[in-house]
Amino acid sequence: MIPEDMSEADHEAHEQSLDELYHTRARKDLLKIQLLRLTQKNSPGWVWHGDFTMQRGTILKKQWALREQFIQVMNEGADAGGMGAMNYGSFHTSHY
Fold first, then answer.
1. Which residue among 2, 59, 62, 84 has the highest number of C-beta atoms inside a 10 angstrom radius?
2. How far is the C-alpha of 8 from the C-alpha of 18, rounded, in Å?
3. 35 and 55 in a common domain
């Protein structure tokens, strides 16, 4: 019998038997659980971590630390008479 021609009670019984036979409801529930695990939205206090979520201040602090390290290396080289002894008067950090 075609599902459209069935009575409502027969139609519900037919859907229930198909669900039991093919486990469609269990598959849908499992898919929902897997999606929740992937997104981690069900974890209490879950937040994004990593460089892609850094705030502007943190990025600037990292850039400043790199700049200070560069200046320190250049000054140490100038003291030793190495490459750092060259004139870097035109050096500016506006690109940071």
1. 84
2. 15
3. no
